[in-house]
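[step 3/7] inverse_fold.run input=structure_tokens len=413
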């Protein structure tokens, strides 16, 4: 049985902007996480004696600061060469030929597909044909897949493509293609990259995004790694996920319904964090803690958020200081119904509640607030811009709920 690995979106030495502003962040561990995850990929390939490795773009995160990033890659490829494992890869939008101004001689076992036209690499002893094309420039907006070579009859055909295949929202439109086009290609496996969420489409041929091998922020949460592909005598591929990440991002939602004392809240936080540690598979975990539900403590949490956040972080340290880092504490709690505002109330408290309710129901809260989002984003630093998810209704609800809680707490003294 043929076995190979499919990985993508390595983003070696991603700059991880804004880390320094996070309280107590394990900055060095996060900075080197992409390298450690890539080392895990290489070690797994050698240990499992796979036939070859496919890298579907964005090996790098952009132009190198110096040659150190490239030298690290060469070193890892050399380890695979000594194990007689070949590597076939394409360049994506982050490491397109137009973006990488430096270069290094790669070991003989590494083939990066040309940027000028799609081509085919044949592995005669395995009856495998691998087809691919690299991005010449970051803004590659044409459908590259339509020009890929015809499948080699009777062989196992792999298409390697960095793409924003239609239907995958929230990603830049690069080398767009349709699922139908890929299915009509005659290939047996499409090794895709660019989308950081793992996805394996049902049916034949197998079309798969492995996701990135290491999450870089809270929006890239959950296990990250590569796909191990096993091919049977009928050229049917079976896919298995292999976790490679060394740092895992996750969200722990802690319901506080009915909690009347801080000690009870912190006990619930403690329980939730212990479950996070158990699920981490001995990895360092960056956790966002979200306090939800209705509790009479809601006003105090809003008014004294710094104290509450510190208590939550202290709880995390007590649970496991080496395996847990609290990325953020979010408050989405509300007062019980009996303590909320009475109908017909025309006090300032009622006015705040009414305004928030109207804005929460609005399709364009920013406009109602008189906020020019384009102008705001233009003025903000890049790392702050990335936290503004203006098109996400859930983000607006969180912002408005937080603002309401703080204002009501202030008005109540």
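[step 3/7] decode complete -> sequence:
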């Amino acid at each position: 049985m043929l076995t190979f690995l499919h990985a993508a979106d390595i983003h070696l030495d991603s700059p991880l902007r804004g880390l320094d502003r996070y309280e107590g962040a394990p900055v060095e561990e996060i900075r080197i996480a992409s390298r450690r995850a890539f080392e895990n990929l290489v070690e797994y390939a050698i240990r499992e004696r796979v036939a070859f490795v496919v890298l579907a773009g964005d090996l790098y995160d952009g132009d190198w600061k110096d040659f150190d990033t490239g030298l690290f890659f060469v070193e890892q490829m050399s380890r695979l060469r000594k194990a007689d494992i070949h590597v076939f890869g394409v360049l994506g939008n982050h490491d397109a030929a137009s973006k990488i101004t430096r270069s290094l001689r790669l070991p003989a076992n590494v083939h990066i597909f040309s940027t000028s036209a799609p081509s085919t690499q044949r592995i005669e002893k395995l009856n495998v044909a691998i087809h691919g094309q690299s991005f010449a420039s970051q803004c590659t907006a044409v459908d590259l897949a339509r020009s890929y070579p015809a499948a080699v009859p009777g062989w196992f055909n792999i298409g390697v493509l960095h793409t924003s295949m239609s239907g995958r929202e929230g990603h830049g439109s690069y080398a767009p293609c349709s699922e139908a086009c890929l299915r009509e290609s005659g290939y047996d496996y499409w090794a895709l990259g660019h989308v950081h969420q793992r996805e394996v489409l049902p049916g034949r041929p197998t079309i798969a995004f492995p996701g990135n091998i290491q999450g870089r922020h809270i929006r890239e949460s959950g296990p990250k790694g590569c796909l191990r592909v096993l091919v049977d005598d009928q050229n049917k591929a079976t896919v298995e996920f292999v976790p490679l990440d060394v740092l895992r991002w996750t969200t722990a939602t802690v319901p506080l319904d009915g909690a009347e004392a801080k000690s009870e809240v912190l006990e619930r936080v403690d329980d939730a964090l212990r479950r996070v540690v158990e699920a981490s598979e001995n990895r360092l975990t960056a956790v966002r803690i979200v306090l939800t539900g209705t509790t009479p403590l809601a006003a105090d949490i809003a008014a004294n958020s710094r104290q509450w956040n510190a208590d939550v972080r202290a709880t995390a340290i007590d649970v496991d200081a080496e395996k847990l880092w609290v990325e953020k504490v979010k408050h989405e709690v509300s007062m019980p119904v009996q303590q909320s505002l009475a109908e017909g109330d025309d006090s300032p408290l009622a006015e705040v509640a009414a305004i928030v309710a109207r804005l929460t129901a609005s399709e364009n809260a920013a406009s109602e607030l008189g906020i020019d989002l384009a102008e705001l984003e233009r003025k903000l630093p890049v790392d702050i811009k990335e936290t503004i998810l203006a098109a996400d209704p859930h983000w607006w609800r969180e912002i408005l709920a937080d603002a309401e809680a703080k204002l009501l707490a202030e008005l109540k003294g």
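[step 4/7] annotate
The chain has two domains: 2-243, 248-411.
The chain has twelve helices and 15 strands.
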